[in-house]
Request: fold
Amino acid sequence: MATNASRIAMHIPPAAPADYAAEVSRGSLARAGAVVRRYLPAGGRAVVVTNPTVRGFWGAPLQASLAAEQIPHLVIELPDGESFKRLSELERLADQMVTAGCDRDTLVVALGGGVVGDVAAFLASIYMRGVGVIQVPTTLVAMIDSALGGKTGVNLAHGKNLIGTFYHPSHILVDPETLASLPEREFRAGMAEAIKYGVIGDEELFRLIESRPRGWDSDAAALDAMITACLRQKAEVVAGDEREGGRRRILNFGHTLGHALESATGYARFRHGEAVAWGMIAAGRIAVLRGSLPAEAAARMNKVIFAACGPLPAIETAPEVILRHAASDKKARAGVLHFVLPTAIGQVEVVRDVPAALILAALADTINIEVTR
Reply:
């Protein structure tokens, strides 16, 4: 017997625009409450996600600014460290919000570094199918990179940020004065992301860092300018390729092998920026071995990395292990790794099908550079 088939057309309205601003302003933490008030739904409350360390330094000023605006709020904590960027912690934070009676009129405020920002934004993107989020970064990595762009996520044993969403904040409030509490090692690690922006497309920024790899805390104007330059470049890239289908991939310079190094060492040996620094050195070596980057340019890049980010923890993981972890990277397509490789200071290309033997050779050279530099 013949049957009639029906076809129902579903028309999805276009998503709301994701325009937002990243504001770099000293002392702005004291008026964060006014920013939160601007984006808080009527009758809603703010949920501050932070860690105990950051809360000890900057929780009170933020809460005072919320109280000044008479904004009801709750503070929940994520333990400090990359090893807590896990689904289990995400569920625990969500349970606290449910227990506290948080509804769809909640606004999440991420106060902290990259781990806090990634987890808090992921939480906001899935809590009751999405509530607003404001980023208040307190580390250099978060200020110049991770807070902007809408990437959220947590780690799995197989790799970094393998579960996550694209979910943009309503606003990014960067107060460089909060860097006063950042340990020196964390600041140096964050400089790797700044160098990244110089190598991928801003030779002037690279030259600025090359001329003064240290001492940023003594020149507020220069530091603010560096932060702004990084944010401006990332905003331009993301605006043209939000979901990383093309040009946004250049922002992954140093991250393919950097993430693999973090994963292979259980997120315990390297700060994120330190792993990215080694990843950039390895990517430069791959480019040299491919003949697409002069050895002198790679040496110049390495010198700036060691001067601004060092001393870097030595790599004690075998190249084969690092490559195995890289194969699980979310940036791989059909099992093929894509590398962002420099062709000059300020220029990069995305390359696929780099032979495994060449990657292993570059990693071996990178490991040995610790002895010869």
Observations:
- Strands lie at 21-24, 46-50, 73-77, 107-112, 132-137, 154-156, 159-163, 171-174, 338-344, 347-352.
